[in-house]
Design goal:
six-stranded parallel beta sheet; Rossmann fold; alpha/beta; 12% strand; Dehydroquinate synthase-like, alpha domain; zinc
């Protein structure tokens, strides 16, 4: 039995750290490919590029088109090859992070991830989720190392729309659930080995932090304040969840998310974290969790307006055929459903999706939550 644990080489978090990062980044090189979306460039990216230029960096700003697909990665890789860039910086959300890691891997160079939202656990891991150009899950891409540096400016994140922080909390809440089931099944983590005690402890701390500080962090984000509680949740969403899922393992929650990408329509409007939230509830039922444990997670999701019913997922009128399509992809033998400690079929997954939705409806009516 081989245990494996991984983490980024450097992790920097705090207010205003982005505009004080030149010395840290400069250790890796001075020719920078800065990958960011037009919206993020407008908010902070153009200012960050100018800051780097004033500190003697040669910066090539590249607009991200919105999808971490092979075609987008290849397009930006060619730009980096032409410019002979030696540092790739991904500034933005999860798909920018995943694309930047792939581009740096293609270029065999340094990658720095600078999230502007705390919406996913992508920044710290040595893998990327690769989608088709149309946004359907395609495959995981694995690397030899984690990012060289991750920089989280909590002042920037505190001013981001609160929906992103909540989506990150939902994604992070799956971490301990999936890692626990992976251990129970004697499954492998995303590194291809077994979980260490450190990996186990990180997943547990991630969950504890979310339950304890989530409400206060969201309140701080609403008013744009970088409070200690927000700082804790940003770390839970990004570092603890990032290390926790990679070194602990994924199971049903993310497999079900991947299954949902097989569907098109209004569900495409939902974020990664929102879909994972519903997947986590399904995993709890698939593994026979007791009512008290299930309702703890359900209450958390309801507090923050996360999807707990098929209607919330924009699938209220979905046919069994459509749900089976998602369930079948979720149970693909190459996906992480294999890490469940019980064997499940696509029919099992579809039935649980419907059962979770119905239970949530009844729970909300029983507790006067207006459903």
């Amino acid at each position: 039995m081989v245990k494996l644990f991984a983490s980024p080489s450097n992790y920097v978090q705090g207010p205003d750290v982005l505009m004080h990062s030149a010395d840290r980044i400069g250790k890796f090189g001075k020719k920078v490919l800065l990958l960011s979306s037009p919206s993020v460039l407008k908010i902070i990216g153009n200012d960050f590029a100018e800051y780097l230029k004033k500190n003697d960096f040669d910066v090539e700003v590249v607009n991200f088109t919105g999808e971490s697909s092979e075609s987008e990665i290849d397009r930006v890789t060619k730009i980096g090859q032409t410019n002979v860039d030696n540092v790739v910086i991904g500034l933005g959300g999860g798909k920018v992070s995943d694309s930047a890691k792939a581009i740096a891997d293609n270029l065999n160079t340094t990658v720095v991830i600078a999230p502007t939202i705390a919406s996913t656990d992508a920044p710290c891991s040595r893998l990327s989720v690769i989608y088709t150009d149309k946004g359907q899950f395609d495959h995981y891409r694995f690397y030899k190392k984690n990012p060289d540096m991750v920089i989280l400016d909590t002042k920037v994140i505190s001013h981001a729309p609160v929906k992103f922080l909540i989506a990150g909390m939902a994604d992070a809440m799956a971490t301990n659930v999936e890692a626990t089931d992976t251990r129970k099944s004697d499954g492998t983590n995303m590194l291809g080995g077994k979980s260490t005690l450190a990996g186990e402890a990180i997943g547990q701390k991630c969950e504890q932090t979310l339950f304890k500080y989530g409400s206060l962090a969201v309140a701080a984000n609403v008013v744009g304040s970088a409070t200690p509680e927000l700082d804790k949740i940003v770390e839970a969403n990004t570092l603890l969840s990032g290390i926790g899922f990679e070194s602990g393992g994924l199971a049903a929650a993310h497999a079900i998310y991947n299954g949902f990408t097989a569907l098109s329509g209004e569900i495409d409007q939902l974020s990664h974290g929102q879909k994972v939230a519903f997947g986590t509830l399904c995993e709890l039922v698939l593994t026979g969790s007791d009512h008290r444990r299930f309702e703890k997670y359900l209450s958390f999701d309801l507090e923050f307006g996360l999807p707990t019913t098929l209607e919330d997922l924009k699938l209220g009128t979905a046919s069994d055929e459509e749900l089976m399509k998602a369930a079948t992809q979720a149970c693909d033998p190459s996906d992480t459903m294999v890490n469940l400690p019980v064997s499940v079929t696509p029919t099992d997954v579809m039935n649980v999706m419907k059962a979770v939705s119905e239970f949530s409806h009844e729970y909300q009516i029983k507790n006067g939550l207006g459903d």
